[in-house]
Every structure is written in C-alpha cells, then in structure tokens.
Design a protein that fits this description.
Layout (H helix, E strand, L loop, with lengths): L9 H12 L6 E5 L6 H13 L12 H7 L6 E4 L10 H10 L10 E5 L7 H12 L5 E7 L7 H5 L2 E4 L5 H12 L3 H10 L4 H9 L2 H13 L4 H33 L9 H36 L20 H19 L4 H13 L1
Parallel strand pairs: 1-4, 1-5, 2-3, 3-4
Helix pairs in contact: 1-2, 4-5, 7-8, 7-9, 10-12, 11-12, 11-14, 12-13, 13-14
This protein binds zinc ion.
Length: 361
C-alpha cells in the first residue's frame, strides 16, 4: 500500500504528500474524522512515505525501509494505543515515548509515533505531552489519531496540523465488503449503505447478528405478531448482549491488572459500570439505525418505486411498497423518539416495547 492507493481521502493524502515533498513535516499532526474511514491506515502509510528511501512523497513498498515497515519491524515507526476499551493512555506511557525521542532515529530517517485513540490520553498525560510538542525533539513526528478531537486540550490541538478525514464512498465500502466477505452485489451495497461510509462499521454489520435480529423483528411485526411478545424476545436479547459486553470488559480489565502490575490506573467500579453502560447504549443506537433505515426504505419505495436508492436492496421482496406515507412518517418519528429516550438513559426494554407498538400500528 501507499498514500496514493488510499481510498477516498484525496484531500488528506494530497496535503500529506505535499508536506513530505517540500520537507515541511510538522512535529505534531492531528488526524481526525469518523470511525472506520482509514485514518490509522493512512497514518501508517504516511510514516512509511516519510521514511521511504526511493520515493519523494510516497511509500515505494520496495526499499528496505518500506519493507521493514510492512513487516512490522521498522525501528522508528511506533504505535501507541490504549490496550483495550477500558484503558487510557497514561503519563507513564507518554513518558516512555518522550524518553525514546532523546536518541537519534535508528534507521536514519524520522521517528514517527502513531498515537491511536489519542483522545484517551488522560489530562495529566496530555499536559506532560504538551511540553514535548512545545519544544519538539528533532527528527520526531507525532501523529495523533482520533474521532473526538474535542477531547484533546485546545493547546494540544493548536500545536498540531489538523488533517481531516471524511466518510468513504458507498462503492469503496461495498468493494471492500465483497472482497473480504464474499457477499453478493446487493448484499454488499446494503451493508455499505447501512454503514454510512465507515468500513469498520460495515465489517461489524457482517460479523454480528444485529441486522438479522432487526429484519426478523420487522417481519414478525408486519405479519401481525403481538408487539408485546416481540419486545419480550428483544428485551432478552438486549440482556444477553449486556451480559456479554460486561463480561468482556471485566475480563479485559482483569487481564490488564495481571499483565501490568505497575499500572497506576486501575478502573474503579463506577467507571467500569459507566463504560459498560456506554457500550450497551452504543449498541442500541446501532439497532435504531437499522430500524430507521428500514422505515425510510419503505417510504422511499412506496413513493418512488426506485430500487436504486433503496438501502436494504438485498431484501426487496420483504419491503412493503404500498404503505401510507403519513403513517410511515409517524413510524420514522417513533425511531427518532426512541433514540432520544436511550440518550436520556430510559430503560431500553420499555423504549423498544413502545417503539415496536408504534412500528406495528
Ligand atoms: Zn520505500
């Protein structure tokens, strides 16, 4: 891979290639934009391009430096990331990074730190890191990667050159899904449309049973099944999901404590609970996106009969094309309302029960 082969991020890659070509590489760069659109991959290609011995502004993939990077053993390209969802990037970790900048780069190029989920650097560590950005060690470049740039101190943001990433095009995501999962054209298109330009979300949709669950619920409601029964089944499903998330988070947290006895930040019980609640809520929003897309599709299909603009085009047979537009509008509003209730922390079982009654009416 190289910067020129990166998909759909032409503005970002053009900028990056320009600063490499002119040898005006800032000490701090901030790669920001939505989840799953190629920020990390581009950062890695950028690190390769900076150190490439053949090409003036990209990675050649053939020189010794590029090959080392591709094999994961380039001494001057370092990744820093929170070990898992429960972890923050601590002062200790940042100090370790700063210490290595005191030595010259091993391979003779530049030392590049790719800091993933940079918003998870805690405030104390950010303050510490700020000093490094203010008096940058020579030959070192920090690439901060985040979906939430506002979580970083304004003083950090202002010392980095911001590189913005946008969502990917539908065709790009669909092609990747076809390549990686062997889906049909219609299926890949549906997944890409539902993933809203994020390839990570698209992979997630293929790998989880979320979509199957939603399509099943919709069919049951269309067939006239009692919404109360349907919502009880879904409540049980949510409970299982919640348990799975909770046990995954707890076992990760336990492993970390065992693996890293020097770690000063051990997660408090409340923090752990808040984390689980946040992950569960995120999961519920993903379900609502799918309900919303289905209702939207039925409305569009009824009004236009244009299958080219349908998201769930791999399920055209199940799509009702003769619905009352006003009623469907009300259903779409019900999904929006459910979204607000989940945001306000109302009980999910209750929110979804009300939603299913609205969708069935
Ligand atoms: Zn090269």
């Amino acid at each position: 891979m190289s910067l020129s082969e990166t998909k759909d991020q032409q503005v970002a890659t053009k900028l990056l290639r320009g600063i490499i070509r002119r040898d005006r590489i800032p000490n701090g760069l901030l790669f920001w934009g939505p989840y799953g659109v190629g920020k990390r991959m581009t950062a890695f290609e950028f690190a390769k391009a900076v150190n490439c011995r053949e090409s003036a502004d990209d990675a050649c993939d053939e020189c010794l430096s590029c090959r080392k990077a591709n094999h994961g053993n380039h001494a001057d390209i370092k990744r820093i990331k929170p070990v898992s969802k429960t972890r923050i990037i601590t002062v200790d970790k940042i100090e370790e990074v700063i210490e290595t900048t005191m030595f010259r780069p091993v391979e003779g190029g530049r030392r590049i730190f790719l800091i993933e989920d940079a918003d998870r650097i805690n405030e104390q560590a950010q303050n510490h890191f700020l000093k490094t950005l203010e008096e940058p060690p020579s030959q070192s470049v920090f690439v901060l990667i985040t979906e939430r740039p506002r979580q970083l101190l304004p003083t950090i943001r202002s010392r980095c050159q911001a590189i913005r990433f946008g969502v990917l095009q539908m065709d790009t995501v669909a092609d990747m899904i076809k390549r990686d999962h062997g889906c049909s054209d219609d299926q890949a298109y549906a997944i890409a449309a539902l993933a809203q330009g994020s390839v990570s979300r698209a992979h997630d949709l293929v790998a989880t049973e979320r979509r199957t669950v939603v399509l099943d619920i919709i069919q049951r409601l269309i067939r006239g099944e009692d919404p109360l029964m349907v919502s009880e089944d879904f409540a049980a499903h949510i409970q299982d999901t919640e348990k799975a998330i909770e046990s995954a988070v707890k076992s990760e947290a336990k492993q970390q404590v065992e693996a890293d006895a020097t770690e000063t930040v051990v997660m408090e019980k409340e923090a752990l609970e808040a984390l689980v609640a946040g992950l569960v809520r995120g999961e519920l929003f993903e379900y609502l996106v799918l309900f919303d897309a289905w209702c939207r599709d039925e409305l569009v299909y009824s009004l236009t009969r244009d299958t080219q603009i349908i998201y769930n085009r791999d399920h055209l047979q199940q799509l009702r094309g003769d619905i009352d537009a006003a009623k469907q509008d009300a259903r779409i509003n019900a999904v929006t309302e459910a979204w607000k209730y989940i945001e306000r922390n109302l009980k999910p079982a209750r929110v979804f029960r009300d939603l299913f009654f609205n969708l069935a009416s």
